[in-house]
Specification:
The radius of gyration is 48 Å and the shape is rod-shaped. The protein is built from ten helices and no strands. By secondary structure, the protein is an all-alpha fold.
Length: 255
């Protein structure tokens, strides 16, 4: 019997070892200290990567926000410049349209005198105009203004007013003198000339326009309080007129 004992033990031990081996194989990987360390390092690396990625994203987001803010600022500057350019273009259009309409009106105002002289058909009238009568003198200054010869227009209107201060065209001459100064950007003399119309000829047909252009000249001289007061007077004194409408438009541009 003793001779067969090793085979018996072998028959018992081998299955037991197989069971133990199977148990070792079936042991969960996370119970392995090495595997635990590997998993821990992998987790730490993942955290570092996530932190680094988060920092990069934060920096990129901050840079994008800064670029967008700069873009908004530049767009705002462009818009301001575009508005300023459009306002300047409109002012120039208004100026030349206003001057053109008034020049046409002034020419019409002069025409009846000339046609009356022609209707008279007398040699005396013709010779008087040729010799430099008041009407002819005014006409020459007015023609210089229409031709954009502003120095000649200024000297001609000043001379006419000095020689014929009480003439029927004196208020017109005073107004056009102001216009000649205004278009040459001599706003100080323009303001004085326009103010003179209201002071000397308050009932003149040029009085509303002269008061309006006085406000314009004060605006250009940066005398904003005075300009606002003057332009407000235009609407109060001459309601419903074109001068009142233009005064209201300019008032909206005064801060």
């Amino acid at each position: 019997m003793a001779h067969h004992r090793p085979g018996w033990l072998r028959a018992i031990v081998l299955p037991l070892l197989a069971v133990l081996a199977a148990g070792c194989v079936s042991t969960p990987a996370e119970d392995d200290p090495l595997q635990i360390r590997i998993d821990d390092m992998d987790r730490r690396i993942g955290q570092v990567e996530r932190v680094a990625t988060g920092q990069n994203l934060l920096e990129m987001s901050q840079r994008i926000d800064a670029l967008q803010a700069e873009l908004r600022r530049l767009r705002g500057q462009v818009e301001v410049l575009e508005n300023a350019n459009e306002a300047l273009r409109k002012q120039q259009r208004d100026l030349y349209a206003d001057l053109s309409s008034r020049l046409d009106g002034g020419a019409a105002g002069v025409a009846p005198t000339g046609s009356a002289s022609s209707a008279a058909g007398t040699a005396a009238d013709s010779s008087a105009q040729a010799a430099g009568s008041a009407d002819a003198q005014y006409g020459r200054a007015f023609d210089a203004l229409k031709a954009a010869n502003y120095p000649a227009a200024i000297s001609g209107m000043r001379e006419f007013l000095a020689v014929h201060p009480d003439h029927g065209l004196a208020s017109n001459a005073q107004y056009w003198l102001g216009e000649a100064y205004y278009v040459t950007r001599d706003y100080q003399n323009a303001a004085a000339a326009f103010a003179r119309v209201g002071e000397r000829w308050p009932q003149s047909g040029k009085a509303p326009d002269a008061l309006l252009k006085l406000g314009y000249a004060q605006f250009e001289l940066k005398q904003l309080a005075a300009a606002k007061q003057t332009l407000t007077q235009v609407g109060a004194r001459y309601p419903g007129t074109e001068a009142a409408r233009l005064a209201q438009e300019r008032l909206r541009r005064i801060p």
